[in-house]
């Protein structure tokens, strides 16, 4: 079985200011030294230069929360993949439900953004997940496949392995009601199995995250699941002590896996 080190990504959404960002990033740097797990911080775009200044040449990566599918042009208010790359970004979040629900992104445009991110040398973190209504109707499998397939169509199955997939049930985001570890495992196992139908090696290699009300109290149970390779952390990334606890849990699980 492939040894996939845990990845923990802070999605700080539209939060933070220069002093708060500095405290957060400096604390994460200090408290996660010598860890086996991987970490990344995605601040709002105006703070990417600050992230670059504080995190460059360190073990903590940084990235954007969104990007255009275009490299340049008359797209007022948008940020291109080349701009993210210029500020040293490693990651970019693609298709977060908060953008999908406002109509900014579709399944198809997420495929285009994923492809553009790879072309620019970025690692896209593709967010997929169902609404509460879809969950109650038992349509989760259909939804995640519908959201994943356009990406595979755009980049091909082997290139998919260069990205990350984050399963974030919309009913769990910001509600304090995380999916059960069993549900997260079932869906991520299904996603890995769907990918495996096309390429077993890609399925084994690709990093799959869970996101949605992850906190220090449930992170260990969630990330102990065999197909949960880490977390995309929203609310808990606004409290540095909580985020560091989640990072420590991820590191302990990564160290245990490495020793096995």
Question: How would you describe what is shown here?
Answer:
It is a single chain. The protein has one domain: TIM Barrel (Alpha-Beta Barrel), CATH 3.20.20.70. The longest helix is centred in the last third of the chain and has 20 residues, at 240-259. 45% of the residues lie in helices and 15% in strands. The chain has an 8-stranded parallel barrel, surrounded by 6 helices. It is of the alpha/beta class. Strand 2, helix 2 and strand 3 form a beta-alpha-beta unit. Helix 5 (107-119) crosses helix 7 (140-155). Involved in the gluconeogenesis. Catalyzes stereospecifically the conversion of dihydroxyacetone phosphate (DHAP) to D-glyceraldehyde-3-phosphate (G3P). Pathway: Carbohydrate degradation; glycolysis; D-glyceraldehyde 3-phosphate from glycerone phosphate: step 1/1; Carbohydrate biosynthesis; gluconeogenesis; Carbohydrate metabolism; erythritol degradation. GO terms for molecular function: triose-phosphate isomerase activity. The active site is at 96 (electrophile), 168 (proton acceptor).
Number of strands: 8
CATH architecture: Alpha-Beta Barrel
- According to CATH, the homologous superfamily is Aldolase class I
Separation of termini?
Answer: 11 Å
Average pLDDT reading: 96
Outline of this structure?
This protein is of the alpha/beta class. Helix content is 45%, strand content 15%. Helix 1 (18-31) packs parallel to helix 2, helix 1 packs parallel to helix 12 and helix 7 runs parallel beside helix 9.
